Amino acid sequence: MSWQTYVDDHLMCEIEGNHLTAAAIIGHDGSVWAQSATFPQFKPEEISAIMKDFDEPGSLAPTGLHLGGTKYMVIQGEPGAVIRGKKGSGGVTVKKTSQALVIGLYDEPLTPGQCNMIVERLGDYLTDQGL
């Protein structure tokens, strides 16, 4: 299965008539493996800061998580595995696998829990596959 298929069929899937606003699978080095057409143009330093927070949990909390120039307030996650962010009625979930970051962006009416489920389920599957 291609990386784009994972994004199109698994991350951008419909749940109760709703879906993520954007999604991507990005290598730890910041290289884009696949992304939705709606995924924002991000800066390499934004991915570096996310990777640093996985190594040093809490490092993003003071400054926020930035992605595509949008700042998200960092909320509860799983240190070293999941970072979650919130901005207004939307937010972001980032799941780290052994080789990649699975990223999902959402806005209402999709709920934070639905976004977490979509992103983390695929991340867990990729981790189980050694990816």
Structure description:
It is a single chain. By secondary structure, the chain is α+β, with helices and mostly antiparallel strands. Helices cover 29% and strands 33% of the residues. The chain starts with a helix and ends with a helix.
SSE inventory with pairings:
Layout: H1 3-11, E1 22-27, E2 32-35, H2 44-55, E3 65-67, E4 70-78, E5 82-87, E6 90-96, E7 100-107, H3 112-128
Antiparallel strand pairs: 1-2, 1-7, 3-4, 4-5, 5-6, 6-7
Q: What features would you highlight for this structure?
A:
single chain; 131 residues; alpha+beta; 3 helices; 29% helix; globular; seven-stranded antiparallel β-sheet
Shape: globular
Helical content class: 25-40%
Q: Which class do the helix and strand fractions yield?
A: alpha+beta
Percentage of residues in DSSP E strands = 25-35%
Residue-averaged pLDDT: 95
Written as H for each helix and E for each strand, in order along the chain, the element string is: HEEHEEEEEH
* Strand line-up in the sheet with most strands: 2-1-7-6-5-4-3
Poorly predicted regions are none
For the largest beta-sheet, the strand count, sense and barrel status come to:
7 strands, antiparallel
GO molecular function: actin monomer binding
Subcellular location: Cytoplasm, Cytoskeleton
GO cellular component, one term: cell cortex
Subunit structure: Occurs in many kinds of cells as a complex with monomeric actin in a 1:1 ratio.
Structure, briefly:
The protein has 131 residues and is an alpha+beta fold.
